[in-house]
Amino acid sequence: MTYLAVPIAAADLEQAKTQIKAALQKGAEMLELRSDYLENLSPSLVEELIAETKRATRSLPVIVTCRDHRQGGAKQYQCLLRVDVLAAALKAGAEFIDFEYENFLDAQSQEKIRRALAESTKGRLILSAHNFESRFDDIRKLYQHIMTLHPAAIPKLVYKANHINDCFDAFDLLRRTGGDRIVFCMGEAGIISRIIAKKLGSLVTFASVDDKSATAEGQLTIEQFKKLYRYDAMNADTKLYGTIGSPVAHSLSPAIHNACFAKAKLNKLYLPLHVEGGKAEFEQFMNHVLGRSWLNFRGVSVTIPHKQNALEFVKAKGGFIEPLAERIGAVNTLLADENGALSAYNTDYIGAMEAIESKLPIAELKDLPVAIVGAGGAARAIVAGLCDAGAKITIYNRTIEKGQELAWQFGCDFAPLTALQNTNARLLVNCTSLGTYPDTNVTPVPKKCLKKGMVVFDVVYNPRETLLLKHAREKRLKRIDGLSMFINQAAAQFKLFTGKSADTKLMRRTVCRKA
After folding, report:
1. 212 and 184 in one domain?
2. Can 307 be counted among the known catalytic residues?
3. Per the count of CB atoms within 10 A, which of 70, 77, 206, 239 is most buried?
């Protein structure tokens, strides 16, 4: 079993009671009493805290932690006091105490803790090691040292992931070991290790009551675990999906896909996969995933900046590429079967064209002057769709070589971004990510470029009304927001992921609640 544990980081008993009540209301499965946050710490104070906790929680297991300041503790309490606190916690009925592996090597501390454990009828020791900077040099060796020192211990190995690719050390250790152990990564890049800890059998994963009460970098809230990431439905057989990009923290894809997975009662989970860097980092991540069939990754959405990297990767692996994606030169959806064989698709094309046709009938697109801002993966799909409809396209891009290459491939015109003010376009499409939350006060298109009779389409969907669309509204122009394209392409992806039609109304409701 994996427990969803909530840290109680209170300065006094009254504050602790309030936090415990909130944790129970949210659905905590275990409480971690962070006694290093208490003012005027003493063994008797911790005994009183445990008594209050047991009265409130009845059967919920409790971890008592008094963390060394050098390993993330809130206050600089002396080691001997912290050992006395943990011994008192065992005597008071705590199910677990958490002590640092490095400090357990000290003979005096070790003797006191072993004696307290021997006198306890149910208490167990968690021996923890943290690295707040990077991966451990050899996490397997560290695990073995802990188990050799105290075979009855529960090893807790937590480190900062500076890139999502750092998480696979933690996944591999959980795969190769048995029994009770706690392993995950800190930081934004390590978020997925917290989410799938239950799938991989970590004894505990930690969650906060709300964003303000998080006690570690990358710690999610209970609500995010249970509502967004389907924690209660997760098990070892859960199939994984996700959105690969940089950034992805504010992507709404996990919300809509997980909502649809839940409605369809599918054992599937959709994750945010923050893959920083370029082609090399993307390929490393994909090779990590494909080389570990037991992770059960079956599909990913691909966004900025990896849509072309994904196409090249599938080509190199000899996978299937749908003809449309081949022609566009970018993919936004990858599938992997149980043997790791890949297939690649582009659902941006149909998503964008359906959004455009909601304001401009297909017949009006022939010979229509169009300005495309940007030359990335989304631009490639939209240019392909508009070319098929017979539009007259000019591509505007900051990087001249990239814009010229896209224009040449599709037989379009090109102009530098500085020439946008001279456009006579009837349809203007922003295909860049500028204006995406949280940087909502920027736009790649100056207001003076928006002219009478123009239809303005922004592929950015979060926020729904970008600064560009606000400017278009002020000029009373027709507008197409990115939400329509987002829902359309996501529905096509859902069909590829599941073989079932998506509930687009549910998708739209979910996005509107979140955006």
Report:
1. yes
2. yes
3. 206
